[in-house]
Amino acid sequence: MSRTSTTDLPSELRSLWRTRPVRTPDDSKIAGVCGGFGRRYGIDPVLFRVAFVVAALWGGAGVFLYALMWLLLRSAGDEVSSGEALLGKGRASGSKVTAVVLVVVVLLSAPTFGGSGETLLVGAGFLMIAAMLAGWYGLHRRTPVPPTGWAEVSAVRPPAARDTRAATGTGPWRAPGASQEPGSGPDAPFGPPVPPSWDPLGAAPFAWDLPEPGVAPAPAAPTRPRSRLTKVTLGLALIATAVSVGLSTLGGLTWLDATRIAAIALSVVAGGLLVGAVTRRGHGLLVVAGPLAGFVLLASLVQVPTGGWENIGEHRVEITSPTQLDTPVTHELGTVTVDMRGLELDEDRSYSITNEVGEVRVLLPDGLAVDATCRTDVGSVDCPDRPADTDGPVLTLDITNDMGNVKVTR
Fold it and tell me: What pTM value is reported for the model?
């Protein structure tokens, strides 16, 4: 009898957070966030640093995410993260002043998601954050179990070890059961020294750093030469991106928007992955290819309207002068309300209203002769009848709505 079990998304997300990276100050450029991700998922930290830099330049998401990870990921050996320590949930090695500054950075960088003026939900920064979080989830799916040695790296230091290290500033703490460094005394952060097996009575501590007698050291395994495919591909992708941005801004190629530039960089990275598939190298390019592919996919699905975002939402026009009728209304999404109750015509005039999705309402003054033509593909139409012969000026209305109701009232 066989049993098949499937892991649902909430369980995977809980597992992702339970095995989340810890910041590694011993392998850091700023706070050890990229070093922690690289050590947890077995990837060169340089690739994560490149991803954060690209995200910072593309919509400001990199600054927000790095500051947020700095707050939420604890440092190796600490009880809790800086953010949790700020809330009084435990102790962390960082100062509370740094945590407060990080909170300010997160709050200030959050409104930059729009990047180029779009709304929050479709901004370049929002898409980049979604792509990077999706990439993190993909890395967890690829490596759900932490690698060997991760328990020692992510273990919490005992209080005595934390206090000693904070007071002395000496070397890194080791998890219980790990080998002791020679010469460590009773007050060292590692605890009392453990004699080797050949000196069980501890009579010769000066020679404990010697190897075990009769045990030949294991031969070092031949190391495979490190491939430069990842660095070369990333360099070519950055050059292609820089050239595309230059052609777009200086050369006047307006069709080279953010989505197409990202697609060009993605094509270069994809070429590197193809070469790596043949040579069995360049696996680190997946860290960059994931966010880029997610950004291109989401950006291609969300298109900016022709007239820009100003034609989205409720639009209200008040017409009190006949000269205002020379400017027609063109809207795309939302309710259009045209108030003509203060209008007095001087001669026969015409006015057009065009909307794509939403309701169109026109408010007319009493006694104004109107010849209205109302059209809608989906929705109801409520327009006045054509007037009988009249001696006064007539307003000719042409209202077109693709989807929504059209209503002309007095």
Answer: 0.43
Residue entry with tokens 């209304």: 329
* Contact present, 385 and 374 (Cβ < 8 Å): no
Interstrand relation of 336-339 and 394-403 (parallel, antiparallel or unpaired)? unpaired
The answer to whether 405 touches 356, Cβ cutoff 8 Å, is no
In angstroms, the CA 285 to CA 151 distance is 27
259: closest CA among 304, 289, 290, 311?
304
Burial 33-65 (b: 16+ CB within 10 A, else e): bbbbbbbbbebbbbbbbbbbebbbebbbbbbbb
Tell which residue, 28, 106, 119, has the closest CA to residue 61.
106
Percent of the chain with pLDDT over 90: 5
* 90-98 contacts, C-beta under 8 A, 24 or more apart: 91/162, 93/162, 93/166
* C-alpha 360, offset from chain centre: 38
Q: Per-residue pLDDT tens for 151-192?
A: 777 777 665 544 444 444 444 444 444 444 443 444 443 345
Cβ contact 19:144 at 8 Å: yes
Which tokens hold the place of 164?
């000693």
Residues listed for the chain: 410
